[in-house]
Specification:
With 282 residues, this protein is α/β, with parallel strands linked by helices. The protein contains nine helices and eight strands. The protein has two domains: 225 residues, 3-Layer(aba) Sandwich (Rossmann fold), CATH 3.40.50; 47 residues, no CATH class. It has an eight-stranded mixed beta sheet, sandwiched between helices. α4 runs antiparallel to α6. The longest helix has 23 residues.
């Protein structure tokens, strides 16, 4: 692959952040990638997910920086939570451009609440250096959306699963208990959850931001299904968003744990970059 990597140390609000730059074999393209890690993870990610992603994107010509935000991994300070890492993301973009001056603009690639953090950053900062987003299974959790997702995915799948009916006939499942469970979730899906805080901000970001966006969504992942349920409850059809492209994965889990799932996500990202992002930078 012939990808070279280097360590960066840079300042963020008086704390020291640590990042790894994956350098492409030749002069970097004008569009770089900043990977915003999701969940309580550091820059390598589960099963080295972000390490391998960064190297694949670098092999395709992009300079890529994955980093530990404050209080995570090798970075100093206290973790502020994904809702409050605007300063971390902004400092990381600057660090990538300083390390690779050819990089004029960046795409933010995020998983789970890292994807949500990327959207919040772009909405609040209006950073002109950001030219697009690649978001995998974004975190947009509310009790109402979670109940909606359970009703419309889990129970629907159970009804069409022959194994469920065999267990019911054999008396291994209490039908009254399952009916009560379904009704509880159905009421939750219909309840008005009121102000949704971060979820409202994320919905605003999805509607207001006019930058190209790739959504990588795993159909069997609860986080992805809750995200889709939240959009449905808010009346935001993805099909009507011309700038948004969706890539659905039928079998992959939340972090694309198998090599073939991870490779599919890498290919989808590189194809999208080539079609939607690079032509805009020329």
């Amino acid at each position: 692959m012939n990808v070279r990597e280097s360590v960066l140390q840079f300042d963020c609000a008086g704390e020291r952040l640590i990042g790894i730059v994956s350098h492409p074999p030749a002069v970097p393209l004008a569009v770089g990638i900043v990977i915003v890690v999701g969940g309580p993870q550091y820059r390598a990610g589960s099963h080295r997910q972000f390490t391998l992603l960064a190297r694949a994107l670098a092999a395709a010509g992009h300079a890529v920086l994955r980093f530990d935000c404050r209080g995570m991994g090798d970075s100093s300070g206290e973790a502020p939570g994904f809702e409050n890492i605007d300063a971390d993301i902004g400092a990381t973009i600057a660090a990538l451009q300083q390390a690779c001056p050819q990089v004029a603009r960046v795409v933010l690639w995020g998983l789970c609440d890292g994807a949500s953090a990327a959207l919040l950053y772009a909405r609040r900062s209006a950073d002109p250096r950001v030219c697009g987003f690649a978001l995998a299974n974004p975190w947009m959790q509310t009790a109402q959306a979670e109940a909606h997702a359970i009703v419309h995915t889990y129970y629907r799948q159970r009804l069409f699963n022959p194994a469920f009916w065999r267990k019911l006939i054999r008396g291994e499942i209490n039908p009254l208990h399952k009916l009560a469970e379904l009704l509880r979730h159905w009421r939750g899906a219909r309840a008005d959850s009121g102000g949704q805080g971060v979820a409202d901000s994320l919905l605003d970001a999805l509607q207001q931001l006019r930058l190209p966006m790739l959504l990588l969504l795993c159909r069997k992942d609860a986080t992805a299904q809750t995200f889709l349920a939240q959009l449905e409850l808010a009346g935001i059809p993805l099909s009507a968003q011309a700038r948004v492209q969706c890539r659905y994965f039928a079998e992959a889990d939340h972090t694309f744990a198998r090599a073939e799932w991870r490779r599919d996500a890498e290919i989808a990202t590189i194809d999208w970059l080539n079609r939607e992002i690079l032509p805009l930078s020329r």
